Amino acid sequence: MQKIAILYDASQAVLSTFDLDEVLQRILVIACDYFHLKNVAILLLDEPTQELCVRSQIGWDKGCDQVRMAVGQGITGTAAKLKRPVYAPDVSKDLRYVCSATGTRSEVAIPLMVRDEVVGVLDCQSENLNHFDNHTIDLLTLFSTQASMALQNARLYSLERRRAQQLEAINAIAQQTTAVLDVKELLIKVCSLIQQAFQVSHVSVLLREEDDLVLRAHHGSLTPRTVEGGRLSAATGLWGQALSAGKTVIEDDVRTVPEYVGLYTESGSRMCIPLVSFGQTLGALLLDNVEPKAFRSGDVQSLESVADICATAIQNANYVERVRQLAYVDGLTGIFNRRFFELRISEEMERARRFQTGMAVIMVDIDHFKRLNDEFGHLLGDEVLRQVSSIFHQQLRKIDVVCRYGGEEFSILLSQTNLQHAVSVAEKLRRMVETWQFPGVPRPVTISAGAATYPDHGTTRDDLVKAADAGLYAAKQAGRNRVFLAPVGGKSSAAAGSQ
């Protein structure tokens, strides 16, 4: 009858809830009541470390429930190693005994088994010598099968619930990333969504650029060692292994990795997943966790699905970005067009206002271009436009912008520039064009230019463009092949050029 009563109560405890901690606590209460015990615990096996960790206990001394015990260590570790109950009728005479509760005189440890594999240990201690006879140990062994069943059911439920949550996260990431077509905004959102959904310490996106990877975005709580935009060799580190193998690679403990290359100071473990879309490797998704061995093998498939979604979203955003760029590029010369000029002039003026730095607009026109077309044909005229564009592009800084404003007219935006520098740049371009040997054109090609600066000649887009246009008109009226400053107080001034 006692067996039946124990099994019934234990079965009810197992079936009452899927919460593992609640089930285990109920089982311990039953063990205490039926076997008159004050000290009882369930320790679970941490497979990667092969250590037993206290998951639930009653009566242990303060602090002892934090102890981790290796398989083979102590009476509990020995039971796990031998896969059978181990009994110490007098712990004072048993060298294996590790104290966890003051007053313990006898102890029995019974392994918790699932399919012949140890998943934990039921540890029972008594204040009486030789408290556990064979009959009691048999009952406890039978009782432990219910604890094992509870453990397995709760783990399966936890796994399914985790998978359901991951599927929800995957669906949410797919929905939210599909709607974002700006590459930078997309990468930031990807990192944030993955970090929250999968509860990792830090998420990074590394994208390929030539033979390197560039840290394009990251989100999390760790301290970066590399700035955003920093370049990394695609052949080194964890990402090098993942890209070379074409599959996910995990470092369970970065402290044991020879020649470790890390992006974050506090990393304990890392996972790297290649970002592949339609057979093209775009880069890598890097996940960092503070704790070693933080990544479960069961999470890999879900994270790879997320990586595939992200890779496709990045590819789509790249296509959109290319189309957007083409909308701002002049088809003949390959430099930016007037649409891009209108976009950037407002940005440059706002930047100059905010940081109290100057900026300039230079309007340029090729002198007598219609005559050149009439004499030598439109094909040669187009080639002159292309070569003039190339001269401008090569002579200006990367932060400057040169656009084809229309026909033979060009507009140039100079960042962080004062009046003197604007004039100097315009004159340099004038001299370069004047001395350039244009194939098929037997005479020199020249340009005229007008320059205006913010805030000297205006604080609005219309004021600056109008002023630079006025300078250009004055230069042409004065004989062409020269640079004129925009008029100040109604009067233009010659800055430089042929007289």
Walk me through the structure:
The protein is rod-shaped. A hairpin with a 2-residue loop joins β15 and β16 (409-414). The protein has a seven-stranded mixed beta sheet with strand order 13-15-16-14-17-18-19, with helices on both faces. The protein has a six-stranded antiparallel beta sheet with strand order 3-2-1-6-5-4, sandwiched between helices. α1 packs parallel to α4 (134-178). The chain contains twelve helices and 19 strands. Helices cover 43% and strands 25% of the residues. It folds into three domains: 2-159, Beta-Lactamase (2-Layer Sandwich), CATH 3.30.450; 180-317, Beta-Lactamase; 336-497, 2-Layer Sandwich (Alpha-Beta Plaits), CATH 3.30.70.270. The protein is an alpha+beta fold and 499 residues long.
Highest-level CATH class of the largest domain: Alpha Beta
- The low-confidence parts are none
Strand content: 25-35%
Strand order of the largest sheet: 13-15-16-14-17-18-19
Kindly state the percentage of residues in helix: 40-55%
Under the CATH scheme, the architecture of the largest domain is: 2-Layer Sandwich
The value of Rg in angstroms is 38 Å
Query: Average pLDDT, to the nearest integer?
Result: 88
Give the topology.
Layout: H1 2-16, H2 20-35, E1 39-46, E2 51-58, E3 68-70, H3 74-82, E4 86-88, E5 106-114, E6 117-126, H4 134-178, H5 183-197, E7 202-209, E8 212-220, E9 231-233, H6 237-245, E10 249-251, E11 269-277, E12 280-289, H7 300-327, E13 336-337, H8 338-355, E14 359-366, H9 369-376, H10 378-395, E15 401-406, E16 409-414, H11 419-435, E17 447-454, H12 461-477, E18 482-488, E19 491-497
